[in-house]
# Entry
Amino acid sequence: MFEALRYAPAYLRVSEAIRARILSRELLEGQALPTETELARQFEVNRSTVREALRKLESNGLLGRRRGGKRLFVTRPTRESVGGGLSQAFALHRARVVDVWEALQAVQPGIAAAAAERRSSAALELLEATVERFAARKGERELAVGDVAGFFDALGEAGANPVFTLLNEPLLRLLKPSLAVIIDRVPQARSRIESAQKQIVAAVRARDARTAAEWMTRHVRDFRRGYEVAGIPLSTEVGEELDAAVPGFS
Amino acid sequence: MFEALRYAPAYLRVSEAIRARILSRELLEGQALPTETELARQFEVNRSTVREALRKLESNGLLGRRRGGKRLFVTRPTRESVGGGLSQAFALHRARVVDVWEALQAVQPGIAAAAAERRSSAALELLEATVERFAARKGERELAVGDVAGFFDALGEAGANPVFTLLNEPLLRLLKPSLAVIIDRVPQARSRIESAQKQIVAAVRARDARTAAEWMTRHVRDFRRGYEVAGIPLSTEVGEELDAAVPGFS
DNA sequence: GGTATCTTATTGTCCGACAATCCGACAAGC
DNA sequence: GCTTGTCGGATTGTCGGACAATAAGATACC
# Structure
């Protein structure tokens, strides 16, 4: 009958006020925030209260500081901070490798198609460099995994769609641990990945969206085969390892 | 040459410590956190410092409180809190409606296929109820938009893939405003949406993943036509309206 | 059993303080 | 001119203590 009437503590109202100013672009990226004391004066609250509000915005990725700096600056959520938060959420929702794989299968062909349609020549070069790097890599499991993630990243970047770029990161993050196992245990994994990447890049260079998407579909399906061959149960829960870095502070 | 040596302020170390305990499942969902004073005692820091740490975890959606409650409880990020943060990030990265549409086009067919493969009968009923609700709706633009979002939501739920569920929310959130315009301005929009939903649900009931995905592809393509007919430029930036609710506090 | 009442514990907010250190300016030296 | 040393001020990180409002738990009552 009646709606619960909300009383919002001051620290929330302060953080909301600042957030609104950022989203409305009154505060622009890169701009320095007033000092805590000044904010306290303007909002007519205590500095401690302001600080609580700032911590919220900080972990939302809306505020950050320059390396070793003191003052806070307006920033927008980076791939890393978004990715950290999201993959953390996935893990807590007990997502399994098969869930992540399924999402990859849905998303990546679209990303590949977008990349093929819109890649700039600079993005193409970057993409090719990534492929070369992976192909040249011998051993060094961890670095090879990084290269594969770098390939997907570069592809997302080439598509010039911020939605794809931001969604890509957390999926890759969750993919990595299991990918490392695959590369270790499946002998032909590297060569299969390499050839798939080359086909995809060729299609991207030719601006052939359909072929890019098709090869990507095959590529992702291969990962699933990889899980099976490597003996990774599809129902393994993806877990955040130690590398759950502090989002928004690095 | 040298790596920057990092010093982490106490409030960050505290929040990291607690986060780690949550991610490692030592602290379980629903469990109450010790009181601020107790935490301060254990970490040997001041209560203000603890509070700053708690605010961070609060906006990450890892801590929350029961309606009108005082104590903090361990929670996992809800769809809403994740969605709020993500759509905020998209907006700040100046995503355009075409970007969101492209992402929908990539993701939704996969979701539909997953739903067809794994839907429970309960989920199917919910889905059908949603479709009925939208079909029966006359006028009431906002509610109709909510119904459409509810359809995608129910579909995601039916797929029983937390990754899809969490990714779906922010996309829908960004879709809504433009969808409202389409429903207003394109006369045949409602009937086209309704028939597409019915085809999709039929395929889901028949557990026919391929057909479900195909109809979904058409359905999403239709939205693009809708943009054109409604005169919404595809390069419009999606913006967070006032409804940018406080994530993790509602 | 359920409900009203009372106590206590806990949170939200404030004030004031201080050390560490980042910032900017300015001077000195090659 | 550009780097390096010096210095004062501004700003953050952290602390201690305080108090009102109110949720939570216990207790008495019907």
